[in-house]
Specification:
It is built from six helices and eight strands; from the N terminus they run αββαααβββαβαββ. It is of the alpha+beta class and 206 residues long. The chain binds coenzyme A. The site of coenzyme A has 19 residues, from strand 5, helix 5 and helix 6.
Length: 206
């Protein structure tokens, strides 16, 4: 579609693909990408990203009703992420293209547990238009460096459905190894799905 009521091609909506002022909250930087701490002010761009990729993410995520994509729901999740980050139980990053500021995807660590465990779970996703260019491989390598360097975690676990070959390749390329599998481990898109457990360890802490 074109014109003033156009879809993603109109200037107003083009702005909805860009993260504003990412330079003020950089977690890590790579050749092509910035990893940026999300804020509530990103609600519009995050919501547009989720809506654009709804069908693409659907096979790999829990069932998401329409409420999940509402403005206030997105804003509330971003606020919760900020609280969890402050309390030390999570870390999230928006993946932003350096030149254009476009939002490409995100990464998150959740359920960070300290004590003798020093471990957490990893999630990530990339917009369909941006796949197949090595962006997630580049972003994940930098994110693991932050988790092991600044956060001093010892282990990161990623749970991947065997059918998700692209995700498994990304994890392995970033240094994760397959430790095992669990049957009917997570309820994904309405069904309890088997998952492979991939993990990476921080040898610097040993
Ligand atoms: C998985 C995902 C993050 C990969 O992002 P990406 O930026 O395309 O990844 P990269 O380009 O760094 O690497 C992808 C690798 O998988 C390969 N690949 C891409 N699509 C594939 C597919 N459908 N089947 C098999 N391999 C595939 C690519 O060729 C590349 O491998 P190679 O370069 O070694 O040949 C992205 O596809 C995505 O977000 N998918 C939906 C959400 C999701 O699955 N999240 C993870 C849940 S565990």
């Amino acid at each position: 579609m074109t014109g003033s009521h156009g879809h993603l091609s109109s200037p107003k909506n083009a702005d909805l693909t860009r993260v504003r002022r990412p330079g003020t909250r950089i977690i890590a930087e790579t050749g092509r990408l910035l990893l940026v701490r999300p804020s509530r002010a990103d609600a519009g761009v995050v919501r547009a990203f989720l809506l654009e990729n709804r069908g693409f993410f659907e096979p790999w995520e829990p069932l998401r009703g329409d409420d999940y994509f509402g403005r206030s729901a997105v804003r509330q999740r971003l606020a919760q992420t900020a609280r969890d980050t402050r309390s030390g139980s999570a870390l999230a990053a928006l993946i932003v293209a350096k030149g254009t500021g476009e939002l490409l995807g995100d990464l998150s660590l959740s359920a960070i547990v300290r004590g003798p465990f020093q471990s957490c779970y990893l999630g990530y996703k990339l917009g369909r238009r941006h796949t197949g260019r090595g962006y997630m491989t580049e972003a994940l390598a930098a994110f693991v460096r932050v988790a092991f360097g600044s956060l001093k975690l010892h282990r990161i676990e990623a749970n991947i459905m065997p059918a998700n070959e692209a995700s498994a390749r990304v994890a392995v390329r970033a240094g994760f190894t397959r430790e095992g599998a669990s049957a009917r481990y997570l309820k994904i898109n309405g069904r309890w799905e088997d998952h492979d457990h991939y993990a990476i360890l921080n040898g610097d802490l040993e």
